Amino acid sequence: MSAKNILLKLLGCRLDDISNISEQAWAEIIDIANKQHVTAYLYYHLKEIEALGLIPAKSKDTLFQSFKQSTFRNMALMAEFKRITNAFMEKGIPVIGLKGLHLVSNIYPHIGLRFMRDLDILVPLDKMKVAYDCTTKLGYQCDKVITKQDFSAPHHHLYQQFHPDKNIILELHRSLTEEKNIDMDKLWENAKDKDNGFYFDTEDLLLHLCIHISYNDLFKIDIRHYLDINLILQNRTIDWEQFLNRVENTELTRGVLLVFDITSRLFGLRLPNEVESIIVRNKSHEESMKYAIEFMWKYDKSSKGYKQYKSKLFISDEPIVRRFFRRIFITKDELSFHYSLDSDSRKVYLYYFRRVYDLFSRHFVDTFRSKTNLRLIDNITKTKMLYAYLFDK
pLDDT tens digits for 228-262? Predict the structure, then answer.
């Protein structure tokens, strides 16, 4: 059995006998788990089945150190989230913690088991400006000059902020996705009040995570995100009629069902009849699932090809020259947004020359590689296929 398959069975709690796994195999399993950000959870599972004594001492120590570091890191992130939440509440700003912020305290049995890289916080659109001003007072900085246009831009979150002393990255979200329309007023209405803050009900949490995997990241994610889905499906009561109605209303059914089917395949999970009965496993679905799993195993943020692997730049079939000129001659409002300028200033027009330089310096090499590098061409082809399947194109 390969290291990948052993890891999948361990994460899915389908492998209790580990006595025959070699020391070399354990090293490979842990290396994969590190890249997939599930090392701390792997340690917890082995401890739960009282199997830590059966693995090599070096591997056991590596797992424990990962668990300990993850615990301390998450404790610091959760404390910072509480600090931000308290400051927001004083200003009358409702807050919902997204992804890991919710999962570590509501889904996972221990705070250190779910890897978190940064803070993703959802606030109402009309509170974005006040929330941003509040975070700057809390010590957060931004590489981009934030102007009034940033608060009405179509992107679903503001430009990243960072705290130089705490080494924490923060993203203020106004919505869950920019690809599809979500009724944010209804989402806030569904949110539950807890300790002067808010959190998603189970149905919206599940919807949010499925959207993040499929429509936001085009399945360029690690197995950690599927583990989230697996744990929710196994340990939470879900109103399936309500959930599927919400999905249908947002026209996201195809991507959500693909996430469920991949989770079922990875962890040996039996899907509920309400979901199983509406999955259409045709050729496009099966190919999409295959490519999505391929992308998952390729995930490695430490690799040199990570930026190109994650990029959505090459999805379009539009000719390069036409696309390049279209991206140069964007609207005046778009140009002023990108360069943090006053849209009423005549200086904006001078930045079209800057735009040409930036596009060449940023994308010329990648565009050339997209036509000559076989590995990148393969990634682009499969990304386009997944995109077409999700958006029915």
Answer: 999 999 989 999 999 999 999 888 899 999 999 99
Among 240, 272, 298, identify where a domain stops: 298
Q: What angle do CA 107, 113, 118 make, to 5 degrees?
A: 90
The answer to whether the beta carbons of residues 366 and 323 sit under 8 Å apart is no
Would you place residue 179 in the very low, low, confident or very high pLDDT band (cuts 50, 70, 90)?
Answer: low
Each residue of 197-218: pLDDT tens digit? 788 999 999 999 999 999 989 9
Per the listing, tokens 């590689």 go with 369
> Is there a domain that residue 390 lies in?
no
Residue 306 has a pLDDT of 61
Residue 277 has pLDDT above 80, yes or no: yes
Count Cβ atoms below 10 Å from residue 313 Cβ, excluding itself: 17
CA 153 – CA 161 distance, rounded (Å): 17
**Which residues are within 8 A (CB) of 105 and not within 5 positions of it... i.e. 6 or more apart?**
78, 111
The DSSP bridge pattern shows strands 161-163 and 141-142 to be antiparallel
Task: Give the three-state DSSP class for 158.
Answer: coil
Q: What ranges in 20-56 are assigned the alpha helix state H?
A: 23-35, 39-48
Strand order of the β-sheet with 161-163 is 141-142, 161-163, 168-173, 119-122, 96-97, 197-199, 192-194
Task: Give the CATH number of the domain where residue 14 resides.
Answer: 3.30.460.40
SS3 call for 198: strand
